[in-house]
C-alpha cells in the first residue's frame, strides 16, 4: 500500500531547508512509520530534489515523524528558480512511498 | 482561572480579510493578531521606504484597519500586528489617521521600533548562516537587516494602554505571546509557560492553516466550505492551557489532524524551537479533540532563551529570467521536450550568461524533477518552462525571449507564451548579540 493510506503530511520551509511531517491517522500505524519511513528512504525518494542530509525526528505522543531535509529548496525559498520555491508540494510526493502492511493486516 | 481568547486574523500579507471581520464580530475575542510579514517582505518594504519615507509598511494595512477598527473599538478588542514592516511609525500614524476618519479619535496606537539593526550588523561584520560570507561582503547589495524581536515590548505597549500595537520584524509567535504575558503577568523567565505560549502562537500564526486550509485532499482529508474558511481562535488560560477553535458556523474544521500538521509546520528539531523569548520544546505536546472544532493542546515546555537574536538580512541576490509556452494533444510531450532542447541550444548559441538554468515541463516534471516524476504516464497537455539566473536584467530578459520565439521557430502548435524578468531580493540570516537590538515603544496620538 501507499503511505497515503495510513498517514498525512505537511511541508514547511526555512531558507534552503524543507521539513515534512508524516503523521499516522491511527496511532497503531506509528510502528510501521518508524520501521519503514526512514531518513535514508526519504532521501532516496527525493533523489534529484534533496542535495543534503535528511534527519528524522520522532514524536511518539503525536504518532508522527518530522523529516528535515537540507539543501532541498533550490538554493533557498527567496532565490530559487523553481516553480514551487517553497517546496509546498513535496509532502504529496512523499505520500506516494510504498509501505508493506504489518503481518496482522494493519 | 482567567482565560483570554485570541483570534488570528491573517496568516500572510495578502490573506483574506472577511474572516478577520467575522472573528471580531462573532468570535468573542479580546485580542486580534495579524501576522503579515514574510521573510523577505521587510526587505522589499525597506526598498519602498527608501523611495518614500512615509511608506514601507504593509500595503493592505489601510484596508484591514478600516475593516476591523470600528468593531474592535466597540468591543474593546486589542489589535497586535507586524504590518509595520520596514516603517512601524508610519503605519501607526496611518492607523491613527484612519481611526480619526472613522470617528474613533481616542484610539491609542503604539509602534514598536528597534528591529532595524542594519548599522549594528555592519559594525560587527557578522557571518552569514546560510553561506560562506559576512555582512560586509554583501557590499552595496545589502538592503536591510531586521532582528526578530520578542514579545516584551508589545506586552509593555498593551500594559501602557495601547489599543493597537504595530511592530516591524518580530517573531510570529511573539505576536500572540504578548497578549498572554500582558493579561496574565507571566514572568519573562518562566520558560515552561513561555514555551507553552509559543506553542499557542505557533499554531495560530498561519491563520487558516489550522482550520482546514493547506490540508484538504479529497477522499482522504475532506474539509467542508473552504470558500468560507473560518480563522482560528486560541483560548488560553493563565496556566498556559490551550484550546484551539474557530467561529461557530464558519467553514473549515479544527481537528486533531489539522493541529498536528500545523504544530510541525516549519519546525526542525522539535525539542529546540528557537524564539527570541524562549527555546520552546514541542516534543512532549499532546493534542486531543474535546468537541466539534475544539482541540486541546498541552505539554509545551521551554528552556532559557539564547543570548542572540536571529536577524533577517535582505540583499539583492541576482536576476531571474523566465519563459513559458504550452503544447497539447497527441505528441504534446515530445513537442514540449523538443522545445526545451531548442531553447537549451539557443541560449548557448547566443551566449546568454546564466549561472544556473532550469528546463522543465509543467504537468510533467517541474515540481519534483525528472527522477521523482518518471513514475507518471503521459499528460494531455504540457507547459514548457525555462528559468535562469543572471547577473543583470538584460541577460534575464533574453531567457524569456528565447522561449517566446518558439511561436514561429519552434515545434508545431505552441501557444500561450509568457515571459518575465525580475531582480531577486533574497534573505539570509545572522545572529546578533541581543543587547544590540534596542526596542522602543512610540505612541501616536489619534
Secondary structure layout:
The complex is a heterodimer of chains A (106) and B (446).
Chain A: E1 7-14, E2 17-24, H1 30-36, H2 39-45, E3 54-59, E4 64-69, H3 90-94
Antiparallel strand pairs in A: 1-2, 2-4, 3-4
Chain B: E1 3-10, H1 18-26, E2 31-34, H2 41-51, H3 61-75, E3 78-81, H4 88-101, E4 109-113, H5 118-124, E5 142-147, H6 152-159, E6 164-166, H7 172-184, H8 191-204, E7 232-237, E8 242-246, H9 256-263, E9 273-274, E10 279-281, E11 286-291, E12 294-298, E13 301-303, E14 308-328, H10 332-349, E15 356-362, H11 369-373, E16 381-390, H12 393-404, H13 406-409, E17 415-433, E18 440-444
Parallel strand pairs in B: 1-2, 2-3, 3-6, 4-6
Antiparallel strand pairs in B: 1-7, 4-18, 5-14, 7-8, 8-12, 9-10, 10-13, 11-12, 14-16, 14-17, 15-16
Helix pairs in contact in B: 1-3, 3-4, 6-7, 7-8, 10-12
Strand order of the largest sheet of chain A: 1-2-4-3
Spatial separation of the terminal alpha carbons of chain B: 35 Å
The biggest sheet of chain B amounts to: 10 strands, mixed
Number of strand elements of chain A? 4
**Biggest β-sheet strands, sense, barrel of chain A:** 4 strands, antiparallel
- How many domains make up the coordinates of chain A? 1
Examine the secondary-structure arrangement and name the CATH architecture of chain A: 2-Layer Sandwich
Mean pLDDT of chain B: 96
Low-confidence parts of chain B, pLDDT < 50 over ≥5 residues? Answer: none
Secondary structure class of chain B reads alpha+beta
Strand portion of chain A = 25-35%
> What is the CA-CA span between the terminal residues of chain A?
11 Å
The helix content of chain B is: 25-40%
Helix content of chain A: 10-25%
Q: What share of the residues of chain B does DSSP label as strand, in percent?
A: 25-35%
User: Which quaternary structure do these chains form?
Assistant: heterodimer
Instruction: Give the neighbour order of strands across the main sheet of chain B.
Output: 11-12-8-7-1-2-3-6-4-18
Radius of gyration of chain B: 24 Å
Structure class of chain A: alpha+beta
Pfam family, one (chain B): AtuA
InterPro entries (chain B): AtuA_N (IPR010839)
Protein name (chain B): ABC transporter substrate-binding protein
InterPro entries (chain A): AtuA-like_ferredoxin_dom
Amino acid at each position: 500500500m501507499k503511505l497515503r493510506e495510513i498517514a498525512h503530511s505537511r511541508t514547511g520551509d526555512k531558507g534552503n531547508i524543507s521539513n515534512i511531517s508524516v503523521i499516522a491517522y491511527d496511532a497503531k500505524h506509528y510502528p510501521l512509520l518508524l520501521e519503514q519511513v526512514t531518513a535514508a528512504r526519504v532521501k532516496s525518494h527525493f533523489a534529484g530534489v534533496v542535495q543534503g542530509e535528511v534527519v528524522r525526528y520522532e514524536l511518539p505522543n503525536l504518532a508522527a515523524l518530522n523529516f528535515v531535509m537540507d539543501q532541498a529548496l533550490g538554493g533557498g525559498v527567496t532565490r530559487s528558480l523553481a516553480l514551487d520555491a517553497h517546496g509546498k508540494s513535496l509532502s504529496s510526493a512523499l505520500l506516494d512511498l510504498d509501505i508493506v502492511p504489518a503481518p496482522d493486516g494493519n | 482561572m482567567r482565560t483570554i481568547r485570541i483570534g488570528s486574523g491573517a496568516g500572510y500579507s495578502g490573506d483574506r480579510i472577511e474572516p478577520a471581520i467575522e472573528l471580531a464580530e462573532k468570535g468573542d475575542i479580546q485580542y486580534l493578531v495579524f501576522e503579515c510579514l514574510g521573510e523577505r517582505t521587510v526587505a522589499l518594504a525597506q526598498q519602498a521606504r527608501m523611495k518614500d519615507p512615509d511608506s514601507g509598511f504593509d500595503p493592505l494595512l489601510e484596508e484591514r484597519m478600516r475593516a476591523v477598527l470600528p468593531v474592535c473599538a466597540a468591543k474593546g478588542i486589542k489589535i497586535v500586528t507586524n504590518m509595520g514592516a520596514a516603517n512601524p511609525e508610519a503605519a501607526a500614524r496611518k492607523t491613527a489617521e484612519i481611526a480619526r476618519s472613522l470617528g474613533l479619535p481616542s484610539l491609542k496606537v503604539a509602534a514598536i521600533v528597534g528591529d532595524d539593526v542594519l548599522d549594528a550588523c555592519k559594525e560587527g561584520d557578522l557571518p552569514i548562516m546560510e553561506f560562506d560570507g559576512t555582512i560586509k561582503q554583501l557590499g552595496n547589495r545589502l538592503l536591510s537587516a531586521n532582528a526578530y524581536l520578542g514579545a516584551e515590548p508589545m506586552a509593555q505597549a498593551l500594559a501602557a494602554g495601547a489599543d493597537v500595537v504595530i511592530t516591524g520584524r518580530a517573531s510570529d509567535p511573539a505576536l500572540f505571546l504578548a497578549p498572554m504575558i500582558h493579561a496574565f503577568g507571566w514572568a519573562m523567565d518562566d520558560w515552561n509557560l513561555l514555551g507553552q505560549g509559543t506553542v499557542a502562537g505557533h499554531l495560530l500564526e498561519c491563520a487558516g492553516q489550522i482550520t482546514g486550509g493547506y490540508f484538504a485532499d479529497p477522499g482522504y482529508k475532506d474539509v467542508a466550505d473552504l470558500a468560507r474558511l473560518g480563522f482560528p481562535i486560541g483560548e488560553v488560560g493563565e496556566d498556559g492551557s490551550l484550546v484551539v477553535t474557530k467561529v461557530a458556523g464558519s467553514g473549515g474544521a479544527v481537528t486533531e489532524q489539522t493541529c498536528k500538521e500545523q504544530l510541525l509546520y516549519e519546525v526542525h528539531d522539535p525539542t529546540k524551537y528557537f524564539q527570541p523569548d524562549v527555546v520552546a520544546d514541542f516534543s512532549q505536546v499532546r493534542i486531543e479533540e474535546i468537541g466539534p472544532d475544539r482541540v486541546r493542546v498541552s505539554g509545551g515546555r521551554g528552556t532559557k532563551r539564547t543570548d542572540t537574536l536571529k536577524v533577517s538580512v535582505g540583499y539583492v541576490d541576482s536576476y531571474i529570467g523566465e519563459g513559458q509556452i504550452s503544447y497539447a494533444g497527441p505528441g504534446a510531450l515530445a513537442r514540449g521536450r523538443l522545445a526545451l532542447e531548442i531553447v537549451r541550444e539557443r541560449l548557448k548559441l547566443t551566449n546568454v550568461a546564466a549561472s544556473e538554468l532550469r528546463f522543465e515541463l509543467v504537468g510533467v516534471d517541474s515540481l519534483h524533477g525528472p527522477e521523482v516524476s518518471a513514475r507518471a504516464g503521459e499528460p494531455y497537455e504540457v507547459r514548457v518552462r525555462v528559468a535562469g539566473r543572471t547577473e543583470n536584467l538584460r541577460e534575464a530578459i533574453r531567457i524569456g525571449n528565447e522561449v517566446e520565439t518558439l511561436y514561429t521557430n519552434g515545434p508545431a502548435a505552441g501557444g500561450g507564451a509568457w515571459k518575465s524578468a525580475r531582480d531577486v531580493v533574497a534573505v539570509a540570516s545572522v545572529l546578533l548579540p541581543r543587547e544590540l537590538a534596542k526596542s522602543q515603544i512610540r505612541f501616536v496620538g489619534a
